[in-house]
Amino acid sequence: xxxxxxxxxxxxxxxxxxxxxxxxxxxxxxxxxxxxxxxxxxxxxxxxxxxxxxxxxxxxxxxxxxxxxxxxxxxxxxxxxxxxxxxxxxxxxxxxxxxxxxxxxxxxxxxxxxxxxxxxxxxxxxxxxxxxxxxxxxxxxxxxxxxxxxxxxxxxxxxxxxxxxxxxxxxxxxxxxxxxxxxxxxxxxxxxxxxxxxxxxxxxxxxxxxxxxxxxxxxxxxxxxxxxxxxxxxxxxxxxxxxxxxxxxxxxxxxxxxxxxxxxxxxxxxxxxxxxxxxxxxxxxxxx
Length: 288
Known about the structure:
Elements: E1 2-3, E2 16-17, E3 23-25, E4 31-36, E5 39-44, H1 55-70, E6 76-81, H2 93-97, H3 108-111, E7 125-129, E8 132-134, H4 136-143, E9 146-150, E10 154-156, H5 170-177, H6 180-189, E11 193-194, H7 195-201, E12 206-208, H8 213-225, H9 229-240, E13 242-243, E14 246-247, H10 251-265, H11 268-278
Parallel strand pairs: 5-6, 6-7, 7-9, 8-10, 9-12
Antiparallel strand pairs: 1-4, 2-3, 3-4, 4-5, 10-11, 13-14
EC number: 4.2.1.17
Organism: Nakamurella leprariae
Keywords: Lipid metabolism, Lyase
């Protein structure tokens, strides 16, 4: 049974209720949250931008995960995208190029990209990938504990085609979740990875027709919810190396990612990549 999150409740993120039983969290309705029993469904809600990540969406997801972590009645989180075309198209490069990302929320550094990729809550997370999931979309999947995908979904880390790199965890997580040589091929060539191949490689737990996607994710969540929630949460913390909400085993990886990112983002090629993308033309690389 669906339950509306009461915006007046502590931790309800000051959301606004929708008639369908969801609550908007974050700015401009970019994230929706809905309870179903012990499961919180978090929906990236920018279908007009293929659910690309901007500041409002980042804050909305981050607040929704904080809500889930603080609420003892929420045992599993499912994250998905609005519409039937895209799960998440990664960062909103067009908005970034126009300088419209908005003010920086101080919590965003702790949460990471999309309010999610460094946001290590104790509750299990399941990505329900409803379509296009290149770049940051794949990095959200890599940050999730489990994933199910529609047969129309596409994965990949094409950042190198834009003059940047997979700086939201993809550069070090991909090779830990699929065979290293295959991971390097996709990381360096930036080629897409169809859903069926992602399943073969173990990136996702199941591939189903799109109309069955959310039910499949919820069924997986219910298999977890029949177990003792504190036992499940302790198991996740140990498996993921989580201490005080941080994956401590990844601390050095994030430090190195930040260092590489600072250097790369000062390069002419990084600026050219974003500009070329916004102008819908091929980039002209200079190697500097």
